[in-house]
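User: Show me a protein chain along with its predicted structure.
Assistant: Here is one chain, sequence first, then structure tokens.
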Amino acid sequence: PPGGGRAWWPGLLWVSAGLLANAALITTIGFILGCALCYGLAVQGLRRAAGEPAGRARTLLIYGASGLGLSAPVYWAFTHLLSISLPGLTRTGWL
């Protein structure tokens, strides 16, 4: 918890799992879904580290929707504004 005297290792494992899952799956499921998965796992770990209970199905859906809402504009900005090629799920360039 904030101000706690020692590290909470399960939280580190949740965040690490998100980063590793993103790195392992980004070329398979695309940038947007990979980053949304990373975001969902990281938020779950950080919330649990703060002492909040595990998320219910509705909470996990909110995390997923938030991750999609954050990663989609980032993908669009990188691919269309900066012309940086990121892995996508489809050839259309939107997923």
